[in-house]
Amino acid sequence: MNLTDYVRKVSREDFGKEFRHEAYWNRRLKTTGGRFFPKDGHLDFNPRYYEADQDLFRKIVRHELCHYHLYFEKKGYRHKDRDFKELLQAVDGVRYAPPLALPDAISYLYRCQQCGQVYPRKRRVNTAKYRCGRCRGLLTLVDERNQSLG
């Protein structure tokens, strides 16, 4: 899918206005659905929202287009401004993107051989170099996974 063409289509259909800049995917966005850059007018979008729910993604596009169109009309384009709130409600955009279920960061589980102390870690630990902080016992890799301890 060409993102810029999609944003132009949403802008024409939902706002009756043209989007004249570029839209880009940005995988580095973690907690937000999109961003508007007033300096050059481009938009960034989180592709994880598109992959998760396309209806929600369209509402996120509307949200960013509210910032975009209000900025170039020299009206209040920030979240706290009345113009922004009214336009967002009129086009049925989302105020805030709901949090995505991100993969859990804990990938390695180590256990002390002597006292049984458990050490969940994001990165590998050199067991020849590091020991248990409680009793100085040897550590062993118990589980290598992509889920949390639960």
From TrEMBL:
Annotated active site: E64
Molecular function per GO: zinc ion binding
Keyword DNA repair carried by entry: no
InterPro entries reported in the protein's UniProt record: SprT-like_domain (IPR006640), SprT_Zn_ribbon (IPR035240), Uncharacterised_SprT-like (IPR023524)
Keywords: Cytoplasm, Metal-binding, Zinc
Binding site residues for Zn(2+): H63, H67
Family that this chain belongs to: Belongs to the SprT family.
Sequence ranges assigned to domain SprT-like in this UniProt record: 1-142
Biological-process GO terms, alphabetical: response to stress
Acetylation as UniProt keyword: no
Location of this chain's protein in the cell: Cytoplasm
The protein's name: Protein SprT-like
Cofactor binding remark: Binds 1 zinc ion.
Cofactor(s) required, per the database record: Zn(2+)
GO cellular component, one term: cytoplasm
